UniProtKB/TrEMBL annotation:
Descriptive protein name: Uncharacterized protein
Organism annotation: Planobispora takensis
UniProt entry tagged with the keyword Transmembrane helix: yes
Keywords, in A-Z order: Membrane, Transmembrane, Transmembrane helix
Classification of source organism: Bacteria, Bacillati, Actinomycetota, Actinomycetes, Streptosporangiales
Transmembrane segments: 12-30, 50-71, 78-99, 105-130, 137-155, 161-185
Domain of life: Bacteria
Keyword set includes Membrane: yes
Length: 205
């Protein structure tokens, strides 16, 4: 029974990794296609890719929670999932508008969930690094993902979004997409301290 449970968890972590990697690649493409107009206009391709990104981050939050990887237990991943739900509400509702200025007040409030979710990713990355239950690159990559916010604020304010969209896309590919691949290819590494045993099970399958 324990072996079956471990195998099921490995499969789900692998799927979560795929979702995270797809989301990172998708939003990287979406931001480049939308360009600077993303600040004022609703680009529906960018919205679709943004939704894939949010679902990927939700998969990451679930993985961190399921493997007990964060210091403080489930509090931070659960908070992240709540914020992501708000960001998804905004994203789906935005299909009915062309400009950000056209949106009603309640939708503008929901939009706040986007930056808050990105901030929570940074906090979650810190919690994973502090806990040290994930080993090697996995321990630090959630923090690299969360650092996107720290990178983009000065980039946007100094060189503008014209170049910023490419910096953002590069960061998405080098952080979220890579972390997703690590989880998809070696899910047992996320099961520390059971990772070694799970690796044996996977290899023998």
């Amino acid at each position: 029974m324990e072996e079956l449970t471990t195998q099921r968890l490995l499969s789900r972590v692998r799927l979560a990794g795929v979702a995270l990697s797809v989301g990172g690649v998708a939003w990287a493409a979406g931001t480049i296609v939308a360009g600077e107009d993303i600040q004022t206009h609703i680009d529906h391709f960018g919205t679709v890719t943004g939704i894939l990104y949010l679902l990927g981050v939700a998969a990451l939050a679930w993985t961190i929670m399921a493997t007990g990887a964060a210091a403080g237990g489930r509090v931070i991943p659960i908070a992240q999932l709540v914020l992501l739900a708000g960001a998804l509400v905004y994203s789906f509702a935005s299909f009915g508008y062309r400009l950000h200025d056209d949106m009603p007040g309640w939708l503008v409030v929901a939009d706040v969930c986007w930056p808050l979710a990105n901030l929570c990713t940074l906090v979650m990355g810190i919690a994973v690094a502090v806990a040290g239950r994930w080993r090697g690159l996995l321990r630090w990559y959630p923090l690299v993902c969360g650092a996107w916010l720290l990178v983009m604020i000065p980039v946007k304010n100094t060189i503008g979004m014209g170049v910023g969209v490419y910096v953002s896309a590069a960061w998405m590919l080098g952080s979220y997409a890579v972390l997703g691949l690590l989880l998809a290819l070696r899910p047992a590494a996320a099961l520390s301290p059971r990772g070694a045993a799970a690796e044996v099970v996977t290899s023998g399958a």
